[in-house]
Design a protein that fits this description.
120 residues; mainly alpha; 6 helices; 68% helix
């Protein structure tokens, strides 16, 4: 996570914020564009509303903003990725894996998704 102690991260609160943010974004059909002034205003409003998520991981917060209203957004696939990431945090909290192991795991997951099979 961004700048907080991983062992103090409340995974359930993060997941709730993510799911509620997705609902808000789908209802509003908001498309995040960081160079647009309206997007900046909405970004600020949402970052205050979902402050637990934003404070814990601006990266996850921004990922949700940028992905949800894309034409090819697949919520089931997205939720599986988020669940996987949050499960890794729980494993780190229980000292079952290291942060390095979790980072490598996420890297492999993303590589499978974004790098064509003939290149990986």
């Amino acid at each position: 996570m961004d700048n907080i102690n991983i062992y103090k991260t409340n995974v359930d609160m993060i997941n709730n914020d993510i799911q509620n943010l997705i609902l808000d974004l789908k209802k509003s059909k908001f498309i995040y564009n960081k160079s647009d002034n309206n997007s900046t205003t909405v970004f600020n409003l949402l970052s205050n509303k979902y402050s637990v998520l934003f404070t814990t991981s601006k990266t996850l917060f921004t990922l949700v903003l940028s992905d949800v209203n894309k034409v090819d957004f697949d919520q089931n696939s997205f939720n599986l990725k988020i669940k996987h990431i949050l499960d890794l945090i729980i494993q780190m909290q229980k000292s079952k894996i290291t942060q390095n192991d979790a980072s490598e795991n996420v890297g492999r997951m993303l590589a499978k998704e974004f790098i064509p099979n003939n290149l990986s």
